[in-house]
Write a structure and sequence with these properties.
Blueprint: H1 9-24, E1 31-39, E2 43-49, E3 54-60, H2 67-83, E4 91-92, E5 100-103, E6 112-118, H3 131-147, E7 157-159, H4 161-165, H5 183-206, E8 211-214, E9 223-226, E10 229-232, E11 239-242, H6 244-258, H7 266-277, H8 285-289, H9 291-307, H10 319-332
Parallel strand pairs: 7-11
Antiparallel strand pairs: 1-2, 2-3, 3-6, 4-6, 5-6, 8-11, 9-10
């Protein structure tokens, strides 16, 4: 039998769906339907029960998070729900009173941890992103970071300078060894990585107060708006890191929104984001000056993320686009 890693994309999805059916048998819900949503790092399925209530089932790669790390995500989500008014998904316990279950299927090469969350209503916003949206996003980022300041996180040490743009300690992949790029592209990517790593490493050493628990992927696909209320989803990348990572992620999205659109102004969106952020978290001029390098670190990390998923038809078309955008951004700063 072809291993899971060697299987085609469609075959992987079929195998993961079979595993999803096994996992759901251990939860106190009567499943009416299972809908495949996406496969990137995780596999996501939308589950509807016989009362039309919806859930998100997430199947984690074995190598991505260990069980203690998964429970640290659950810990933060429950803390947010109990201590703040931020809308986040509710983790669901299985029949054994646990939030994570390890499942195995003969067509999979190894067991996978599965977690179930409520499915929050709402829509993502891209076309209608404006200064008001940016202001609210800034508030959300700062409220989330403030809420995590006193939590003890040991296993999710993910987003420091080394993890973002290091080499041997890179979270995803050493981008000095890329495939399918020209020698000149590799040279510029390597230069960008070294400069960014140096800047963030210095900042990290001098400003330990700028390091804490962050969401790790604060971009519009993970922000739902429903009847004027904002919710944050997908905490799978959450972990300890530099606070500027969340801002840099949002700004990369705003850059994309404003590009070629006369009605959208990147600087106005950035100003609104930072104004909202400063309501709950301190922000200095040095923090602001470093934001382009946080943005560049996100662009470089995106390349690393795409590099290890080159066989995924949902994302591989973005690889060369991401390389070109990172290089052009580096040249500008």
């Amino acid at each position: 039998m072809v291993t899971f890693e060697q299987a085609s994309y469609l075959s992987k999805v079929k195998r993961l769906r079979a595993l999803a059916e096994i996992a759901l048998g251990d939860y106190p819900i009567k499943v009416r339907s299972i809908e495949f949503i996406k496969l990137s790092a995780n596999a996501i399925f939308r589950v509807t029960d016989n009362k039309n209530k919806q859930f998100q089932l997430r199947i984690n790669p074995k190598i991505f998070h260990n069980e203690p790390a998964i429970y640290e995500e659950i810990k933060w989500l429950n803390h947010i729900k109990n201590k703040t008014n931020i809308l986040v998904p509710t983790p669901i316990k299985n029949n054994y009173g646990k939030f994570a279950i390890e499942c195995f299927h003969p067509m999979m090469s190894s067991p996978r941890f599965c977690t179930l969350f409520e499915w929050l209503p709402g829509k993502t916003k891209w076309k209608t992103i404006n200064e008001s949206y940016a202001l609210n996003l800034g508030k959300l980022i700062s409220q989330l970071q403030e809420s995590g300041r006193h939590l003890n996180i040991k296993h999710r040490i993910y987003w420091n300078a080394d993890s973002l743009v290091g080499t041997s300690k890179a979270k995803f992949y050493n981008i000095e060894k890329l495939h399918d790029v020209t020698p000149n592209q590799q040279k510029l990517i390597t230069q960008a990585r070294k400069v960014t790593h140096h800047k963030l490493k210095q900042y990290e050493k001098l400003h330990k107060e700028k390091y804490g628990l962050i969401h790790g992927d604060m971009q519009p696909n993970n922000i739902l708006v429903n009847k004027g209320k904002y919710a944050v989803i997908d905490f799978d990348d959450c972990g300890m890191g530099l606070y500027g990572v969340d801002l840099g992620t949002a700004l990369c999205a705003f850059e994309h929104v404003a590009e070629g659109n006369e009605r959208k102004n990147f600087q106005s969106l950035q100003d609104s984001l930072l104004h909202g952020y400063a309501e709950h978290m301190p922000l200095t001029q040095q923090d602001i000056n470093l934001l382009p390098y946080f943005m560049l670190s996100i662009k470089l990390m995106t390349i690393a993320w795409l590099e290890i998923r080159r066989d995924n038809p949902q994302v591989r078309g973005y690889y060369q686009i991401a390389v070109n955008r990172a290089i052009e951004f580096y040249k500008k700063i």
